[in-house]
Amino acid sequence: MIAFVRGKVAGVTLSSAVLEVGGVGLELMCTPGTLATLRTGDEAILPTSMVVREDSLTLFGFLDDDEKSCFELLQTASGVGPKLAQAALAVLSPDDLRMAISGEDVKTLTKVPGIGQKGAQRIILELKDRIGAPVGAGQSTRTGVPAPAIGWRDQVHQGLVGLGWSTKEAEKAVDAVAPTAADSPDVGALLRAALQSLRKA
């Protein structure tokens, strides 16, 4: 099991980052909020979780250990795989997830693309006694992360497409949140705002 990866950021795409470790480039699948903290050429340390399938080995990277723990716990619920768990963390901070699950807040959980009412109820039923109380750290690490001055539109667009929305829907959502980008240049916050605009539509 690979607990974390430390190395120079060799590249950042719209859905993953490549870290050079001992001359080997490891690709880590990350949420837009995590990717916004990485800069090519800088050294980074990311907690990781490896998902093993018959035909693939996929490494997921996280902002912190709290996000990683939530990612792994979510997958213990019936019907939740790594893609859906990552989508949940792209929309909600770990503390938001804890509050939604412990408070049986179905409405908040269904903000995540791929989680319907029945799925939310199942997650609450299976994880309510295991999710724990909010720790107060997730929100502060998620907010205030500066997005690159150029490229936030592409990151948010790709994040939406990766979460299951069509290219056209993603473009409309990006246009809808563009006026707020100057006030909140945070890719994670912009992605959540774009998702809210899509739900309203």
Automatic annotation (TrEMBL):
Q: Which SMART domains match?
A: HhH1
State the source organism's domain of life: Bacteria
Q: Which GO terms describe its cellular component?
A: cytoplasm; Holliday junction helicase complex; Holliday junction resolvase complex
Keywords in alphabetical order: ATP-binding, Cytoplasm, DNA damage, DNA recombination, DNA repair, DNA-binding, Helicase, Hydrolase, Nucleotide-binding
Location relative to the cell = Cytoplasm
Q: Which GO terms describe its biological process?
A: DNA recombination; DNA repair
Q: Where is this region: Domain III?
A: 148-201
Name all Helix-hairpin-helix DNA-binding motif class domain ranges.
72-91, 107-126
Keyword DNA damage recorded:
yes
What free text does the record give on domains?
Has three domains with a flexible linker between the domains II and III and assumes an 'L' shape. Domain III is highly mobile and contacts RuvB.
Which family is it part of?
Belongs to the RuvA family.
Role summary? The RuvA-RuvB-RuvC complex processes Holliday junction (HJ) DNA during genetic recombination and DNA repair, while the RuvA-RuvB complex plays an important role in the rescue of blocked DNA replication forks via replication fork reversal (RFR). RuvA specifically binds to HJ cruciform DNA, conferring on it an open structure. The RuvB hexamer acts as an ATP-dependent pump, pulling dsDNA into and through the RuvAB complex. HJ branch migration allows RuvC to scan DNA until it finds its consensus sequence, where it cleaves and resolves the cruciform DNA.
- What name is this protein filed under? Holliday junction branch migration complex subunit RuvA
Record the organism.
Answer: Nocardioides daedukensis
Gene symbol of the encoding locus = ruvA
